[in-house]
Amino acid sequence: MLYRPRLKNGKLIPLSWPVAAYRLLNHICWPLRDDASYLLRLYDRFFWAFGFFIFMQHNDAELRYIIVNNNNLDEMLICGPTYLVLVEIHLRAFQLGLKKEAFKRFLQKFYAEIYIDDYFIVFTFILRRSSHPKLYANIQKSLRPIWFYSLLYFSTLSSYVIMPVVNYLNNVKAPLYKMYYPFDITPNPIYVAIVLSNIWVGFTVITMVSGEDNVLSEVMLHLNGRFLLLQQKLRHDAERLLHVVGDRNIADGLRRRIIEAIEENVRLYKFAEDFEREFSFRIFVNLSFSAGLLCVLGFKVYTNPMASFGFIFWICAKIMEMILVGQLGSGLIYTTNEMSSTFYECNWELVLLKSGDTKANVRLMKTLLLAISTSQKPFVLTGFKYFSVSLTAVLKVSSTGVELL
């Protein structure tokens, strides 16, 4: 029923646990398989609409609680963080759910063309195995801190899962969040429905936050790895030409390698543009809400730490999320910014010195100038061109939250 990522050769991708949880527990966002039946697609659209209604109902109930307690700052601050998170995920999750087919096509392209497996098959004159175990291991190592803060996000659910049991033992019928309903929720059928909807909303929020962060980070790391492999290949080809190719053909040989590198660079940049187009809106919403959320969370933890146990996990996870994702964005900016330097440092001057073909030298220099001029602009992942995913940007957002506090 649900889409499962595969490589181009059909091999299943081993999903990290946050992405696996995202796939299995968040049907609002995760796409269906290509061969899903019409009835399944119809059910999927119905579930999206029904989920939207549940989020609207939660939005209304939490807003009513804030309005009712507008003279009690402590009570308002208890509801404030959950309400901000609810609105943020309402926007992000249902925008993604509305366009999940485009998200699936993006994932298919990523895993088929960009994803760096522990090994892959390439064709040259013969079939051979080319592996990048060190790069793959570095990518997996870079993802571990992101898995850790995903665990912190899931830890915030513990209090909401335990609360129904505590309420039952104390014979209390109250929602799991600070909410005010304009009707009586004490009848058993209504109360059970409300508690189940509270739990479902909680899992939808957590899986959306941790799952999309992991997908975003994984794409940035593998895309960054592809640019690194491109730079490494160009340097290796230039070195090999100086030691293997004859003097007369060396300039044209380097020119062909530069053209191949330009084509690969263009292909990676086109994917990067698709990457930004897919995530731009959700990045904008995420960073837009982050400053206010950090301010409210920090103030609540500071004023009443004993009653803010779940919030402590969330604020730690939020700060780690912003710093780690921003660091990955800065790394991608740095790597793509190095492409023009890689072209310039491909030993073209030694090739010109060794080559005896003047026309080939002119062709090489024209191609080299084209390569340098078209690769001078680094790729910067942004949210609607307003926020950039970089360490500098997220530190500014964090400092804004502290200033508001």
UniProtKB/TrEMBL annotation:
Which protein is depicted? Odorant receptor
Q: Which PANTHER family match?
A: ODORANT RECEPTOR (PTHR21137), ODORANT RECEPTOR 19A-RELATED (PTHR21137:SF35)
Identify its membrane topology class: Multi-pass membrane protein
Provide an example Pfam family for this protein: 7tm_6
> What species is this protein from?
Bactrocera dorsalis
Per UniProt, subcellular location reads as: Cell membrane
The reply to whether Transmembrane figures as a keyword in the UniProt entry is: yes
* Keywords on record: Cell membrane, Membrane, Olfaction, Receptor, Sensory transduction, Transducer, Transmembrane, Transmembrane helix
What family does the Swiss-Prot or TrEMBL record give for this protein?
Answer: Belongs to the insect chemoreceptor superfamily. Heteromeric odorant receptor channel (TC 1.A.69) family.
InterPro entries, sorted: 7tm6_olfct_rcpt (IPR004117)
Transmembrane ranges, per UniProt, are 147-169, 190-211, 279-299, 311-334
